[in-house]
Amino acid sequence: MNKLIDLQHISKSFDSNLILDDMNLYIRENEFLTLLGPSGCGKTTTLRIIGGFEHPDTGRVIFDGADITSYPPNKRQLNTVFQKYALFPHMNIGENIAFGLQIKNKPKAYIQDKIRYALKLVNLEGYEKRMPDSLSGGQQQRIAIARAIVNEPKVLLLDEPLGALDLKLRQDMQYELIRLKNELGITFIYVTHDQEEALTMSDTIVVMNQGYIQQIGTPEKIYNEPENAFVADFIGDSNIIDAVMIRDELVELLGARFACVDKGFGENKAVDVVIRPEDVELVSPDDGVIRGVVSHIIFKGVHYEMEVQANGFEWLVQSTKMFPVGTHVGIKVDPYNIQIMNKPESEDEEAIGIDE
């Protein structure tokens, strides 16, 4: 895929608060890229700089080889869909969708064809004459997307567009957005703080915190191989444990030695270990590497979520097998499921990985 957008050394401050610090990021053609992170991490500011709604203090925005840093939003080949749908309440659905095309003085027949095409794409055929207040939240969001699509942007920017919807609608719209991206062949840049949303829809996830990019990768890479404790903690549930790398393929945590597959960390080196809850295997006490007691249990539908007190640490465990509270268990972990990470080497480095 060709590089479509290139953010080069972007910095941005508001009232002496540094929001983005020397950010470098490129986005490829036809990619579904998600900016993911907690509130205040800089993800929406990044989107607004791409859209032309904010101007960076330093750096350049390159779009399809051209420097568009100083271009206003209406001169950029992209459209934005916001969380608040921003439909015009006094216009019917057809008029809302046609608004951008009318500004461009497109012929009436062309506009009508585009309205029908856009409504078909978002599965709302025949809604031209309806008024926005007669539609559900999910339908209004589809109209907002249809209004953006008819302008044939090269890029669609989506700023937490599903945040106001209930869980079922949000899940339905996630699949709709994936379908639209595949059918339209345009680049999607999506902002969310919802990890599940990011993992479900993205080709690429950019995890951000305090103005810095923490990690860039596929959903699988981000989930299975987090590069630091912040990413591991922010993406899904994790057991993050202080440990010592004894030597290649052997780590000591909570007073017990576990085989792992990582190499190159040195000997007797302090590290962080990440173990996902679904990768913790509960066995009989004699068969475990360490022993513990189940202290809490919740049924989550597809699995049980348990807390196990073992060697002074509260393990989070997810399993389809239920162990009642008070059960003495052993804990085992497959070597491939133990993720070793370097500890931050300085306070500054550590600050980059601290949630706000």
The named CATH superfamily of the largest domain: P-loop containing nucleotide triphosphate hydrolases
Q: Specify the helix fraction band.
A: 25-40%
Radius of gyration: 24 Å
Q: Spatial order of the strands in the main sheet? A: 6-7-8-3-9-10
Please provide the ordered H/E string of secondary-structure elements. Answer: EEEHEEEHHHEHEHEEHHEEEEEEEEEEH
Give the SSE map.
Blueprint: E1 3-14, E2 17-28, E3 32-36, H1 43-51, E4 58-63, E5 66-67, E6 78-82, H2 93-103, H3 108-121, H4 137-149, E7 155-159, H5 167-184, E8 187-192, H6 195-201, E9 204-209, E10 212-217, H7 219-224, H8 229-234, E11 239-247, E12 250-253, E13 256-259, E14 269-275, E15 280-283, E16 290-299, E17 304-310, E18 313-319, E19 328-333, E20 339-342, H9 347-352
Parallel strand pairs: 3-8, 3-9, 6-7, 7-8
Antiparallel strand pairs: 1-2, 1-4, 4-5, 9-10, 11-12, 11-14, 12-13, 14-20, 15-19, 16-17, 16-19, 17-18
Helix pairs in contact: 2-3, 2-4, 3-4
